[in-house]
Amino acid sequence: MRLLKQLVAVAAVAFVGGQAIAAVEGNDALTLLLGLSTAVVAVLVYGWVVRRTERRSVTELARSGAGARITRGLLIGFAMFAAVIVNIAFVADYDIDGLGSVTGAVALLGFMAAAAVTEELMFRGVLFRIVEERTGTWIALVLTGVVFGLMHLLNPDASVWGAICIAVEAGFMLAACYAATRNLWVPIGLHFGWNFAAGGIFSVVVSGNGDSEGLLDTSMSGPALVTGGDFGPEGSLYTVVAGVALTVVFMWLAHRRGHIVPRRRKAVIAQAAPVTVS
C-alpha cells in the first residue's frame, strides 16, 4: 500500500508538471521555470509522503552533502555520454556544424531536470527501494530496470531494441548507483547529466523523443547499432557497454560497502536457524 501511495503522489507531480511544460512549449523561460519547479515540488512531495507512510527520516534525500552528491552524479553522467559520443564519432559520422541554440539548451535544462528528478524518485526512490526490501538487491535491480525500459516504449520513436537498451544501460545502472550510494542525489545528478549532455549540449535525439536543439548544431549518421538510429545514442551498443561497465562498478561498490540486500527467503532462513552454544 505504501508503494502505491508514494508512487501515485510523485507520479501526480510528474503528470501535472509535464502538462504545464507542454502547455508553454516554445517559451524557453517558462519551460525552465516550470521544469525546475516540478523537480523541487516532486522532492518535497516525496519527502512528505515517505515520512507519512513510513514514519521515518528521509535519509535518501538528506540535505547535508546534497550539492556534492548531485555534482558527482552530474560529472559521471556527462563523462559517460561524452565518452559514448567520442566512440560513435570514430565509427560513424558525428559532425559539429557550429553553435546551436542557447535558449533551446536553457529550456532543455528545465525539462531534463523535471524528468530526471521525477523518474529517479519513482523508479529508484519508490519502486527499487521498496521492492528491494521484499526481494533483495539483485532481483529488484532486474525487475525495476525492465519496467524502466518498458516505460520508454511510450516515446515517439521508441523500439523494442531501444527499450532493452534503456533497461540495461539506465535501469540497471541507476539502480546500482542507488544501491552503492544509498541516496537519491547521485542517481538524480547522473540521470540529469546524461540527458542534458545528450540534448542540451551535443544536440542528439534523447530516448526517441526527436531532434534536440542544444548548444551545438550537430548531425549524425551511420549504422543504427552504432548511432542508435531514430532512438538516439541510447540505442547504441557503445551506450550499452558503458552502462554495463558502470553497473558492474556500482555493484562492486555496493558489495564492498555492505549495501547488498539478500533475498528475503535466505534472510528469513538465516534468522530462523538455531543458535548453537558451545
Describe this structure in words.
The protein is mostly helical. The protein has one domain. Helices cover 71% and strands 5% of the residues. It is built from ten helices and two strands; from the N terminus they run H-H-H-E-H-H-H-H-E-H-H-H. A two-stranded antiparallel ribbon has the order 1-2. Helix 4 packs antiparallel against helix 5 (137-151), helix 4 (102-135) runs antiparallel to helix 7 (185-201) and helix 6 (160-181) packs parallel to helix 9. The longest helix is centred in the middle third of the chain and has 34 residues, at 102-135. It is globular, with a radius of gyration of 19 Å. The relative contact order is 0.15. Residues 267-278 have low confidence and may be disordered.
- End-to-end Cα distance, whole Å, is 44 Å
Secondary structure tally: strands = 2
Overall average pLDDT: 91
Secondary structural class: mainly alpha
Overall spatial form: globular
Measured by DSSP, the beta-strand proportion falls in under 5%
Report on the biggest sheet.
2 strands, antiparallel
Radius of gyration: 19 Å
Q: How many discrete structural domains? A: 1
Q: How many alpha or pi helices?
A: 10
